[in-house]
Amino acid sequence: MVLMIEFNALEKSARDRHIPVIFKEGITFIIAELKARHAHSLLEIGSAIGYSAMMMAANCEDLHIETIERNDDLYQEAKRHIQEASLEDRITLYHDDALSFDPQLLKGAPYDVLFIDAAKAQYRKFFEKYIDLVKDDGVVIVDNLDFHGMLEHPETIGNRNTKALVRKIERFRKWIVENDDYHVDYIPVGDGLCTITKAKHKLKLALHLNDASYLHDYLEMGVDRIIVAGPMSAYSSHKFSLEEIEAISARVPETYVMVNGLYDEHELPALRRLIDAYAKMNIKGLLFQDFGVLHYVKNRYDFRMMYAPNTLNTNYMTLNVLEDLGVDSAWVAKEIPLEEQIAIKKHTHLPIMIQGHGVQYMMSSKRHLLKSYAKAAHKEFNQDNVILHARESDYATHIYEDERGTTIFSVNKLYTLDLLNEMSVFDYLYIETNYMSAIEAIEVTHMYSECLKALNEVGVQEYVHKMKDYLPMLREISKPLDRGFLNDETLYRLEDVKRRDNHGAM
Ligand SMILES: C[S@@+](CC[C@H](N)C(=O)[O-])C[C@H]1O[C@@H](n2cnc3c(N)ncnc32)[C@H](O)[C@@H]1O
């Protein structure tokens, strides 16, 4: 056992040389936490001269530590101290950059504890790279979240680089606190620690609202997110006025608004005015597909930004780029099979929404196709309910036209009530209510909500039991149903569409 006095000398020597080792109160808290958890394995990012690793090993008998340090001099010094203290069998030291380090080399995963104490600007990258190596009931401890009090008093920072660094720490803090997958406790000791534990992952319900008079019922059912269309929204047959949206957002903490058109230059002033108006309401997030929307919001407003193009997100690398751009969540393309959607989700940390029920978007045009056709063909029809039958096929689609152009939706509705267990890797299940009556929307949402509750709160057996009860009712209430593209190769191959129509439709 190493003597306490040696640690004091080690700490002093580090501070004299401006090597930022952890504060005494900080390491005391961590040791208490390790003991309370009976921790056996810990991964540390940022060893410096080995002070914190040795303190933890010396004070927690059964603990094995692996620690990564990229600086050569510090690595060599840490190695020497660990040898001198005869702690080599308890502490494994790696000399590498933790961001390029091959995690396969680690021996102790999954870990009880991950301790992140390296380059502060990279906290999120460290976190995302190593979080999967932490046990489900493990903990991540992050040091320096106060950054010498500067986070609370940014006006005191003169240096530009420090300012940028503080901004990055703040961004990490905000990101992790607002991330539903984790629970964060802030510990005001030393230079500010936080402990992060994994929340039980749940698939939540997001609803495209088509009638605000049932808002109360939806909230009672446990719908987590309400998505509304307003002026300048695309792909929605029901649009709310600004006053209505303000009233909805006052009642629903998770209100998202569709600002999801592709906008022309001349529309930008109106678009900016609209976003300014939303910023005065209690709106949590915006659905967008035009990057002009992201550009305008970024550094100006605090909306959560969901990238929701209808067809474009078909691989995880796109999603990772979006994440780097500050996008908070995304919707994966609906035209790819479920298997591929799940693979995408597994490779990205971005929260993903996926359609669970309702008509599916097929295509859209900025042009007014119905009006043009009516004019050219000298025909008149009820533009709210035009159904097109494709030539040489009995495949039917809704055509919907508004001031943003023309959208084509499937007539059949996608259903996934019996796939919720497979889909539970996703973050939000979206109920699309275009072409649904208010009653159909209520009843359908109720069934999904009950099945999700059973799955999330009780277990798979209870869910299967409920789902089997509900499925025949769902088929009665919401028809015609099909699997959309979940089982198909692609929408774009005629054989796939035909195969689906002949065998998959119910
Ligand atoms: C705050 S010090 C660590 C102090 C140490 N945990 C202690 O309390 O005794 C941060 C260390 O992280 C190292 N570091 C920074 N970025 C790193 C990276 N990407 N990979 C590995 N080490 C890194 C630095 O060289 C520095 O030694």
TrEMBL record:
Pfam families: Methyltransf_3, Peptidase_U32. GO terms for biological process: methylation. GO terms for molecular function: O-methyltransferase activity; S-adenosylmethionine-dependent methyltransferase activity. CDD domains: AdoMet_MTases. InterPro entries: Cation-dep_OMT, Peptidase_U32, SAM-dependent_MTases_sf, SAM_O-MeTrfase. Coiled coil: none annotated. Keywords: Methyltransferase, S-adenosyl-L-methionine, Transferase. The keyword S-adenosyl-L-methionine applies. The keyword Ligase does not apply. It comes from the Bacteria. This is O-methyltransferase.
